[in-house]
Amino acid sequence: MNKKHSESVIYIKKNYQAKLLLKKNKNLFSHLIQMHLKSFHKDELSNILGLDAISAFYKSVIISDNANISLFFYKTKLVGFMIYFKDYSKFKSGIKINYLLIPSRIIKLIKNFFKLINHLIVIYHQKKIPKNIYKNYLGSIAIQANRSIRLEVFKTLVSHYEEIVHKYYKDNCWASCRIDNQVASLILKKCGLTIKGEYGWNPKILFYVTKHSKN
Question: Number of C-alpha atoms within 13 angstroms, CB side, residue 210?
């Protein structure tokens, strides 16, 4: 392997190793949170709820047996991550976010009332996802890398994503993304998922399921 190629290699820390790193390294955990904030639209539910809610979510991912995380590194720098679930229903039931304890947060919720209603409509329509695959949820993905290695990170992430869909989930899973998120839609389609429906408004949220999933 020549030097130029070796310098562009992206490596992955999967689930147990990734969780251990995040538990031990507070700076890495902070970097992950900042990557989330920069990667997801300001109208995403997590960003509406705010930093404390996002931190609580990822802390839950780290300690839960029902959630998995993969971290992508270039040399020693975190350049991407992926969340996917062993059992999404059990994971959700275990999350505890005391969001309403601080008055300033209530004010923020009021200001974003209609956006929250939109998200609640989308959550309600999750009932349309076939019961046999609802637990197998492909969660969030994010990339934050320099232009020189961004394509390499993207290729590695897509390859790992395909592995999760085909080998871990056995082509029996679902995902969601904003209708204007062309990159996420491209990845999901490449992995063999198709649109199940469009829900909410401004923007609509797309639900994707694997082609051979049973209703």
Answer: 21
3-state secondary structure of 49: helix
133 C-beta neighbours (distance < 10 Å), count: 19
Of 142, 147, 138, 131, the closest CA to residue 171 belongs to: 138
Interval 165-191 mean pLDDT: 93
Cα 50 off chain centre by: 16
User: Sign of dihedral through CA atoms 29, 32, 36, 38?
Assistant: positive
| Per-residue burial over 44-77, b = 16 or more CB atoms within 10 Å of its CB, e = otherwise | bbbbbbbeebbbbbbbbbbebebbbbbbbbbeee
User: How many C-beta neighbours within 10 Å does residue 134 have?
Assistant: 18
Residue 74's nearest CA partner among 130, 137, 157 is: 157
State the pTM of this model. Answer: 0.86
pLDDT (tens digit per residue) in 69-124: 999 999 899 999 999 999 999 998 887 665 545 555 666 666 777 888 888 899 89
Burial of 81 (0-12, 13-18, 19+ CB in 10 A): buried
pLDDT (0 to 100) of residue 173: 96
